[in-house]
Write a structure and sequence with these properties.
Tetracycline Repressor, domain 2; mainly alpha; 146 residues; TetR family transcriptional regulator; globular
Length: 146
Amino acid sequence: FATKDDLLNELYLTIKADLVQTMIAGLNPNETRPKENTRNIWNSYIGWGVRNPMEHKAIRRMALSERITDETRNRVQEMFPELNELCQRSIKPVFQSDEYRTFGDALFLSLAETTIEYASHEPERAVRFVELGFEAMWQALAEDNS
């Protein structure tokens, strides 16, 4: 790699591709309710984070980094259009705007990080933590809270 930033962007792409692949694998193609599809994605994300703590920590830091280029972020979105489509149907428009997208991402990531931390440390209550974390995220970010 020519620069550290190039390496960082490639690492981001690699980890993000694995994560999003896991999230999409959890989708039920017959499910049409955005909340249930989002719940499946959340559950997959949390499960991935519990199983991959180092990658989760890295992706969390990189997602908020200014060193990750817009080109890299666009490449991730282009790899998984079905996930972007679901987000557009589910997430409040304010969190899809250029002005507040990173704030919405940070809210999601903070709730997910807390859920992953608690689920990892108390596996006997992990299912309940995942459920509660999802409901908190849905109330905060979803367009339709029903």
